[in-house]
Write a structure and sequence with these properties.
The complex is a heterodimer of chains A (158) and B (151). Chain A has five helices and six strands. Chain A is α/β, with parallel strands linked by helices and 158 residues long. In chain A, strands 1-2-3-4-5-6 form a six-stranded mixed sheet, with helices on both faces. Chain B contains three helices and seven strands. Classes of the chains: A alpha/beta (158), B alpha+beta (151).
Chain lengths: 158, 151
């Protein structure tokens, strides 16, 4: 599987697949420029589902209307680039008034141990990051709750 | 111009069901007002079915039938009775939008104003993702509008 194929599957999973149990992802942009960063994919959504009468009422009364996004970045990352990327996510979240955000970093091959160690240290509760090795189907996420919830959504290898 | 105009069976069945429900309700009301009871007559049921097929098809053409014709310069989109024409240079951004119930559309962002235009890829029986990439190539080069300062 190539990175492009993986991104297509991830996009489908976000818009019409199991990720909809977490948030109502409604729109996907490719090669989206935000500031000086070009994200390979940005999927935007919110947490208050629509539904018909009762489900709409239930969603309105019980669910927070958090604005959310899932970003994907496929360029090669150096060991120290992750912090900078997180900073750019925080700026993007501030600009777009997002409440939480996922970042998926897919790669055809293993990630360096330094990058994995750097990921372990990122514990912003509103940011979830996943390193996805497409070749071995290995997934590493950051320890935040949002990050742990991302693990199941990026397993779209088939 | 490349033209895509498939018959969408799902929307056709929906239109037929709407017509049949309205005709059945109309017959029930009329027979109740005249005879004081809802009369079930096989001939009328058959007539309702035949009429529902005709009316459903007309409603489908009026409300749902989608036709997309496009080339490298612009496009013509007909959705039911509504016809939209445009040039690719009028748009600067393309996205893939989920309209609900698994229906996908390709969303175009206009340079002038904050308007968007949805091309209903699922209704046109097109691969929404492939159409999105094709249209991204066509609108490429149109500069985005200047950013408005935040209030």
């Amino acid at each position: 599987m190539t990175i492009d194929e993986y991104l297509l599957r991830l996009e489908t999973n976000m818009l019409t697949g199991s990720a909809r149990w977490i948030a109502d992802f409604t729109e996907s942009f490719r090669h989206h420029q935000a500031g000086d960063t070009v994200w390979d994919m940005v999927v935007r959504g919110h947490m208050r589902g629509k539904g018909l009468f009762l489900s709409r009422l239930f969603a309105y009364l019980s669910l927070p209307n958090y604005q959310v996004a899932c970003l994907a970045y496929t360029r090669e990352l150096g060991d120290s680039d992750l912090r900078g990327l997180v900073k750019r996510i925080q700026e993007y979240m501030k600009d777009e008034e997002l409440d939480w955000c996922w970042l998926v970093l897919p790669k055809e091959g293993p990630f360096s141990s330094r990058l994995r160690a750097a990921l372990e240290k990122i514990d912003y509760r509103e940011i979830g990051i996943a390193l996805v090795n497409i070749s071995s189907r290995e997934i590493v996420t950051n320890p935040s709750y949002v990050g742990q919830r991302l693990r199941d959504q990026v397993k779209c290898f088939r | 111009m490349k033209t895509i105009a498939p018959l969408h069976i799902g929307n056709l069945v929906k239109s037929f069901a709407i017509a049949l429900i309205i005709l059945s309700l109309a017959w029930s009301t009329i027979s109740f007002l005249i005879a004081g009871d809802i009369l079930i007559i096989p001939f009328v049921l058959l007539l309702n079915l035949v009429l529902a097929v005709g009316l459903g098809y007309l409603y489908y053409r009026w409300r749902y039938h989608s036709v997309l014709a496009y080339d490298g310069q612009g496009f013509q989109l007909q959705r039911g009775r509504k016809l939209t024409t445009g040039q690719w240079s009028d748009f600067y951004q393309v996205s893939l939008a989920h309209l609900g119930y698994g229906n996908l559309a390709v969303r175009l962002y206009q340079v002038e104003g904050d308007d968007t235009l949805d091309i209903p890829a699922s209704d046109l029986k097109l691969d929404a993702s492939a159409l999105r990439f094709e249209l991204m190539g066509l609108v490429k080069g149109t500069p985005p509008p200047p950013k408005k300062p935040k209030a």
